[in-house]
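User: My advisor, Dr. K., asked me to get a structural model of this assembly before our group meeting. I'm new to this, so sorry if the format is off. These are the inputs:
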Amino acid sequence: MSLTYDDVIAKYEPVLGLEVHVELNTKSKMFCGCSTIFGAEPNTQTCPVCLALPGALPTVNEKAIESTIKIGLALNCSIAPFSRFARKNYFYPDMPKNFQISQYDEPICVNGYVDVEIETDEGPKVFRIEVERVHMEEDTGKSLHVGGATGRIHGAEYSLLDYNRAGIPLVEIVTKIVPGTGKYAPEVARAYVAELRDILRSLGVSDVKMEQGSLRCDANVSLRLIGVDTLGTRSETKNVNSLRSVERAIRGEMIRHAELLNKGERVVQETRHFQEDTGLTRSGRSKEQAEDYRYFPEPDLVPVAPDAAWIEELRAALPERPSIHRKRLQEQWAVPDKEMSAMINADVLDVVEATVALGADPTKARGWWLGEISRIANEKDVAIKDLAIAASDVAEIVALVNAGELTDKLARQVVEGVIAGEGKPAAVIAARGIKVVNDDSALMAAIERACAAQPETAQKVRDGHVPAAGALIGAIMKDTKGQADAARVRELLLGHLGQDS
Amino acid sequence: MIRNSASEMASKLANGEITSVALTQAHLDQISAVDKEVHAFLHVDTQGALAQAAAVDAKRNNGEKLSPLAGVPLALKDVMTQKGIPTTCGSKILEGWRPPYDSTVVANLKKNDIVILGKTNMDEFAMGSSTENSAYGPTHNPWDLTRIPGGSGGGSAASLAAFEAPLAIGTDTGGSIRQPAAVTGTVGVKPTYGGVSRYGLVAFSSSLDQAGPCARTVLDAALLHEAIAGHDPKDSTSINAPVPAVVAAAKSGNVKGMKIGVVKELNGDGYQKGVRNRFEESLELLAAAGAEIVEVSAPNFEYALAAYYLIAPSECSSNLARFDAMRYGLRVGDNDGASAESVMNLTREVGFGREVKRRIILGTYALSSGYYDAYYGSAQKVRTLITQDFNKAFEIADVLVSPTCPTTAFKIGEKANDPLAMYLNDIATIPVNMAGIGGMSLPSGVAEEDGLPVGFQIMSPVMKDDRMYSVGAALEAALLTKWGAPLLSTIPALAGSK
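Assistant: The format is fine. Below is the predicted structure of the whole assembly, which you can bring to the meeting.
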C-alpha cells in the first residue's frame, strides 16, 4: 500500500507551483512610519494607520517599492510602468482593516525567470523556473490563541492580538506552473528557493531567514499521468520553514497524491500544513469553494508609476547573480567544490570574501571562518554572523600572523578575545599582553635552561637523533608561555646542538 | 454679533472691538438657546472652545501675527477626528470613541487658531441627504423645523443658518456639503478632489469624499478654504500643488468676459418651478455682470446616479469593514465563549443603521466575483465618460452652472422610506464628485411656492477652484444689491434665539 518515490515517478509527472513570501527589511512599515524591528513588546509598534483607526490613510513606503523593483529586475521580470494596489477583502481579527492591501491584476513585476542548476544522473542540468509575477502587499498582525490543546483558534479560551507585524512589507513571488522536472521536482524546488534566497540576500532587501518567517514558501503540487496534458488537482502546502522542508514537503505530497490516485480517489484542493517532525502534511482550509475576496483597486493610494530612468539606474546597480559570483570566486580562489559547499552551507562566503578583499589570503581567511570561528559559534550555539567578529578583525589577525607578530596559537587567543568583546585585535593583544618572543637571546637562554634540565635528551639530539628535539621544544615553549615562534625555536635549538634544521 | 459674517467677526477681533472668548461665548449661548430645536450638534466642547479662544486672545495681546480667521468659531462635522473629542460619524458603532489623533483638517484649523465649538450631526457615515439617518436623531432646518436641513452635513449647514456658528466644516461625497447649503440658504464648497487632505476624515467612499468649507458668505468660505487646503503627505491622493487663489477670487468677484456654461441635462423636468425661476434670474444677473452665458451638454450625466450607487457602496462596504468591535467602539455579545466572529456579527448588526447596512450589502454584491465587471467595472467606465463630458464642456465654458438640487427642503419623514426618491436629490451634485472637480452652492433666493431657500451650483475644473469663487462672489454681490440684505436676514426667528 505504501508507495516508494520510485513507484510514483514511474507512473506520474509532478507539476509544481511555488509562492514565496518575503518580508522586506525596510526600517518602516509598508504604509506607515512604524518600526519593523522584530521582537518588540506587543502592540508597541503601531499607529492610527496600522491599527486601522477611523480616518487613517495609508501612504506607500518608497523604499519598499525600490526593493520590489530590484527583486523584479534580479528575477528578469518586466517592470510595469503603471501598477496598482488592490484591496483583498476578508474578515479576520488580526487584520485591522479587515482587508489587506495587496496587488491583484496589475502587479509591479511580471514575466521573469530564474535558472537553477542541480546534479542529475546525467550530470549538472539547468532548469528554468518561470516567474509569473512579483507583487507587494502588507503582512497581517499575529493572533495568539490561549487555552485549548493545539494553540489553534479552535478550542481556544481567548485570543490575544499583536499588531506589531501588521503592515510589515511583504513581497510575493509567484512562479508559473513548473512542469518537466520529473523525479527531480523536490530538488529543483529546493534549488529554486535557495537561489531566490541568495539573490534576495545579495540585493540586501530582506533578512531571508526561513526559520523566522522572513522568507516563507507555499508549495503547490499536482500529479498527472505521464504523457497526459491536463493538470491534476493541486494541494498547497504551507509552513515550509527550511530548504530541506521544501524538498521533503514536495516529496511527501507527491507520494500522498499518488496513493490517493492509485486507489481511484481524488485529491482534494486544499491548503495543507507541513509537519516538521513527521515530514507529512495535515489538512487545512479547503479551497474547493473559491473564496471571494472582492478585489478592487485601492482608492486611498495613487497608482505606482516608477520613472523609467530610475528603473534603469536600479538595473545598472544590481549586484552580480549569486550563482555566477560563486563560480567566479571559486575560480579565483582555486577552491575545491567540497570546500566551496562548506562555506556556502556555513553561510560564510560573504565574510570570507570581505576578509580576502581586506588583503587576507583566501585559504587563510577560509580557514579562520570555517575553523576556529565556526567552532566557537557551535560551542555558543549561535550563528557565525551573530558573533562579535568582523571580516576586518580576521584580516588584521591574518596579517599579524604573516608578519610573524602572532603565532597561530596566539592568534586563536586574539580571535577568542575579540569574540568575547574585549575589543579590536590590537586592543586584545595589548590587554592580554600577548606577544611573540622573537628575541633570539631570550630564546637562547630558554634553550640552555631546557638542555641543562634534560641533558640526556640533548645528548641524543647531538648524536643525530633529531626527533628527540620535540621534548626540548615543548619545554622551551612552556618556559616562554607559548609566546615563542615554534619554528624559530626549533631552528635555534638544532643549531645549538650542532644539527642542520 | 453672531449674525455677522466670519470676516466681519475677524475684523472686529483684529481691531480689538471684541475678544474671541466673548465671541465664542456668544455662540455657545446661542447653541444653548436654540439647539434643543435645531439639533445641529452632537457634542459641544464648551471648555475646549473657551480655552482655545482665550489662547488666541492672549496671542493677540502679545502682538503675535495671526491668521485671517484667528479667534473665529467653527462647527466641525462629526466625521472628522479631533484628538480627545468624541467622534461618532452619526453612528452607534462609534459611540464613546475618542480619537487619539487630529485629522489634518483639524490640525490646520488649530494652526490657524480657528476655535472649534463642537461636532455636528450627520447622516450615519455620511450616507443620506436629510440627516435623518443619524443614529442620534435628525437635525431640523432652521427655516422650517418640520423640514430636513439636507444631508449628510445637515448639522453643519443648520448651525450656520441658526447662527450657532459662522463657519463649519463639511464633507461631500455626492453633495453632502452643497445640498445642505442649498436647502438652508448658506454657502458650501466641495473643493477639487485632493485639494483638502482626507487624513482623519472617516471614509465613506474614498475616491469621492472631499472635505470643504461651509459659511454664510462666499468670502468666508474662501477664507476657510485657504485655511484647510494644501498638500498633505499623509494622504496619497492629496494634490501636490499650490492652493488656488480662492480668497483673491472671492474678493474681486469679477466675471467680465467669463463664459458660464449651463448644463442642459441638469434642469427642466423634475426641477421645482421656484428652483428653475431662481436659476434663470441668477443667470440674468451674471450676464448683466459681464459674463457670457452658453449652453453645454453632458449626455452621460444621466448615468451618474446609477454609477454613483455602485461605486460609493462598493468602497463603503470595504471601508466600513474595520468596525468590527476588536479595537474600538461598540462591542456586543462578548459573553463567555462567544467567538470573535459572532461578536463581529452582533456588533455590526446592532451598531449600523438601515441605510448603512443597505449600502454595505449593495457594495458587497457589486464587488462579488462574477458581478464585478457588470457593476463596479461598468460604473468606473461611466465615471470616465462623465469626466470626458466635463472636459468637453470646459473647453467651451470656464465654469458650469445648474440648480444645486431639484427641490427645496422636504418634510422630515417624507422620503425616509423611499430611498430612490431620496437618492434623486443628489442628481445635480453627484457628477462633480464622479469627476473630482470643484463645486459650490450659494443661495439664489427662495422658491415662491414654499418660501424656502434655493441653491445655485457652480462647477469649476480640477484645481481651478478660484473660478467658482469669482462667479459665486459676483452673483452674491448682485443678489445682495437686489435684495438689500442677505437672504438669511429673512429667516424666521427661532423660539430661543436672541
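One thing worth pointing out at the meeting: Chain A touches chain B through 30 residues (CB under 8 Å).

User: Perfect, thanks a lot.
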